[in-house]
């Protein structure tokens, strides 16, 4: 991995001529994404993210924190004890420069010996699993990091609407995927291309079934305008 996402974040934070990220997925055309969006304030966040931050309590873990905007809101506006983790070294550098006190380069799956009251996995949390088959291990890992009475706040989208319908109202879904929410994500930044990344979108029913199968309760908290939703998982 060239960590182009992290490079863009650090360029923006340090005023190093940041450019738009060019993103493209296996089911959508090329799109430009302003890096500034990752640095949004609470007021600029979608309702789903605002709701998750309102519900956060106690000791918080922010998984895949990116530029750290969610963590900053919780640390500075809510005075919560937040640990922010990301696998991108450059993103974590930017988070530290922005004033996050506990930002570290860390893969969720190797995090040990810590417990949290709230775990937030926002901006399509399940995405990092890549494939549906990886969801059980992901949920069990999150579960193992919860204190009694703890909660996991996660958002995702049901992307079934992106597939064409046939005359009967059925959907044309490519057969090479085990599950229609499995996509391939490509990023280009300053003319460099990142290695293609498996990226997962999870519809709520599939998440709920996976949660129940792995000893977690799952509650639909909020639905957005674009087939997106916020879910709360607990033991």
UniProtKB/TrEMBL annotation:
Ranges where the Methyltransferase domain occurs: 58-188
Entry's Gene Ontology BP terms: methylation
Pfam families cross-referenced by the UniProt entry: Methyltransf_31
UniProt keyword terms in alphabetical order: Methyltransferase, Transferase
CDD domains referenced in this protein's UniProt entry, alphabetically: AdoMet_MTases (cd02440)
Entry coiled-coil feature ranges: none
Organism classification: Bacteria, Pseudomonadati, Bacteroidota, Flavobacteriia, Flavobacteriales
MF terms (GO), sorted A to Z: methyltransferase activity
Species annotation: Flavobacterium laiguense
Record-given protein name: SAM-dependent methyltransferase
């Amino acid at each position: 991995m060239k960590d182009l996402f992290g490079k863009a974040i650090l360029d923006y934070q340090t005023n190093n001529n940041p450019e738009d990220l060019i993103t493209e997925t296996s089911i959508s055309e090329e799109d430009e994404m302003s890096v500034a969006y990752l640095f949004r304030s609470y007021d600029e966040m979608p309702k789903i993210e605002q709701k998750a931050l309102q519900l956060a309590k106690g000791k918080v873990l922010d998984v895949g924190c990116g530029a750290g905007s969610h963590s900053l809101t919780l640390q500075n506006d809510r005075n919560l004890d937040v640990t922010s983790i990301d696998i991108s070294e450059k993103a974590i550098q930017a988070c530290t420069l922005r004033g996050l006190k506990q930002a570290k380069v860390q893969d969720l799956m190797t995090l040990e010996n810590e417990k949290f009251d709230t775990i937030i996995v926002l901006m399509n949390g399940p995405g990092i699993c890549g494939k549906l088959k990886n969801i059980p291990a992901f949920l069990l890992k999150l579960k193992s990091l919860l204190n009694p009475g703890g909660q996991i706040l996660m958002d995702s989208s049901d992307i079934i609407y992106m597939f064409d319908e046939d005359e009967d109202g059925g959907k044309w879904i490519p057969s090479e995927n085990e599950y229609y929410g499995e996509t391939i994500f490509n990023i280009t930044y300053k003319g460099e291309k990142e290695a293609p990344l498996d990226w997962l979108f999870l519809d709520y029913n599939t998440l709920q079934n996976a949660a129940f199968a792995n000893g977690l309760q799952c509650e639909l908290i909020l639905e957005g305008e674009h087939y997106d939703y916020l879910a709360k998982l607990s033991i």
